[in-house]
Amino acid sequence: MKGLTKGVKCYVKLIAATALVLSATHVFADENLLDPYEGFNRVMYSVNDSLDKVAIKPVAKAYDVTVPLPVKAGVGNFFSNTSDLWIGVNSALQGKFGDAGSDITRLLINSTVGIFGLFDVASELGFEKHDEDLGQTLAVWGAPSGAYFFWPFIGPRTLRDTAGWLGDSYADPVWSARSRSIAVRNSLVALRFVDIRASLLPADKIVDEAALDKYAYIRDAYQQRRRNQIFDGRPPRLDD
């Protein structure tokens, strides 16, 4: 497990270094301004897709089939609860102080009445779940999106969202927890990863049926979704 932790840290450093190099050069660039490193990204997409088919998706399917729905709901609620503090911080950094107060209230309610977040009592009481991260905060502050990248394991990110992901990972309470047992910490990280992948299984069928070019479909869907998140569902119209 110590090797796993060191491997993840090296992977984070590799992503940061690769993004920096590619953003500073045009060695892999083509004429697509929205995806200037499409050649590099398609290779990474193929690597990610192969790893998913061989090692990740089968585990996610087994998890989805064998684990009872109430247990899966509890797992999802638990990890969702661990993110509410950082979501509240980003809400405040974006000037959404009312949302930040609601995020912190959710954390307090679900961590106590909801038994460490296993039950989403706060939503039942009317405290809405928000979805804010450092990438969105950087966008609100005016940081440009930068080039689009497709990374193994973490998937599509713009340069801005790659930087945001690195910050989010550093602030992640699951990763940063100083647990007495590193094995427990790493098991929680693996469980969350599998739970997220299992939740995306229905989307696989949509992509398979709707997309002639899966890479382009995922890229465009990601960029549209991020734009929608940044503007809280009310993005301004784009010029042609």
Automatic annotation (TrEMBL):
Query: Which Gene Ontology cellular component terms are annotated?
Result: membrane
Going by the UniProt record, its keywords in alphabetical order are:
Lipoprotein, Signal
Question: What is a single Pfam family found in this protein's UniProt entry?
Answer: MlaA
Q: Which residues form the signal peptide?
A: 1-29
State whether keyword Membrane applies.
Answer: no
Classification via InterPro entries: MlaA
Establish whether keyword Oxidoreductase is in the entry.
no
Q: Please name the GO terms of the biological process aspect recorded for this protein, alphabetically.
A: intermembrane phospholipid transfer
Q: Which family does it belong to?
A: Belongs to the MlaA family.
Q: Which PANTHER family match?
A: INTERMEMBRANE PHOSPHOLIPID TRANSPORT SYSTEM LIPOPROTEIN MLAA, LIPOPROTEIN VACJ-RELATED
Which named protein is this? VacJ family lipoprotein
Species per Swiss-Prot/TrEMBL record: Candidatus Dechloromonas phosphorivorans
